[in-house]
Design a protein that fits this description.
Elements: H1 3-22, E1 25-29, E2 34-38, E3 45-46, E4 53-56, E5 62-66, E6 73-74, E7 77-87, E8 92-103, H2 108-124
Parallel strand pairs: 2-8
Antiparallel strand pairs: 1-4, 3-6, 5-7, 7-8
Amino acid sequence: MDAFYQIIFAIALSELSSLANENKVTFASCPGDMTFENDDKNSSLEVAFDEPVVDYNTDGTVNIEIDKPVDDKFEVGCTRVTYIATDDAGNTATCSFLVCVGSFSFTPGTILVIIAVAVAVVTVGCVIIVCKCK
């Protein structure tokens, strides 16, 4: 291939690459992991959070799928919430975050455990808290 055709080919590839990068769907904002307190350990909690914002820079439509609606109730523990945005060309973007609901009820046994953990923290210097994700 002579130099003229190599230059034309390089320009064409550059233009195609630019078009491909311009036509992608992205999330302009995606919430971070969040924690809510639930005083009643036996029930779920309705939580409120700002939904992710999709950014799409060309004409067309974007379909957004969510595995847990914003107005749904969350059980005690951690639940991963995932939004998937798909445009007409099949490009996708994902926004995922944890919604953790904690239950804090104190019984005499719980208070003893808290005291034991406090002593362990002073003695050892650290505590590891585990959040089990769905």
